[in-house]
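Render SprA family protein in 3D.
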Amino acid sequence: MELKNNYLSASTIYSELALKKSELANIDKKELEKSYFEKSDSVNEYSKYDEKDYERVLNRFKSSDSEVKNHEQLHASMGTTTTPIRYDYQMGPDGKLYATGGSVRFDTSIPKDEAGAMQKLDELQKAASSPDGLSRADLGIAHSANLNKMLLQSIQEGAIL
C-alpha cells in the first residue's frame, strides 16, 4: 500500500507541476500580446523621422524608379525582345510601388545566313550595352555577341573550318 501512496503523491506532484506550467504559459502569452499591442499602438510610425528624411527617401525611390524604367526601355528599344519588360518593385514610404530592378529577354536566335547572323549579333551587342550602368547580365550578353561575331568573321575569312 505504501507503494501506491508514493505513486499517487508523485502523480499529484506531476499534475500540479503541469498546472503551474500551464498558468505560466498563459501569463507569458498575455505579456507577449500586451507588448505587441503597445508596439503597434503608436500613432504614427514615421513620426520619429522629420520631413526632410521622408522627402529624401521618397526622392530616392522616385529616382530609382525612373532610372530602372529608362534603362530597361532603352534595352527593349534597341533589340528584339521575346517577352515584355519585367520589373521588380518595392513599396516606398508613401505606400506606392517603385521599380528597383528589371529585365528584358532578348531574342538570341541567330539566323542561318551569315549576313543576317552578323546583323543580329550587332543588334544584340548594341542593345545589351546601350544604357549606362550595365549589369552583369548586360555585360554577359554583349560579350557573348561580340565573341560570336568574331567567330563568325573567322569562319568567313576561312581561318576556322
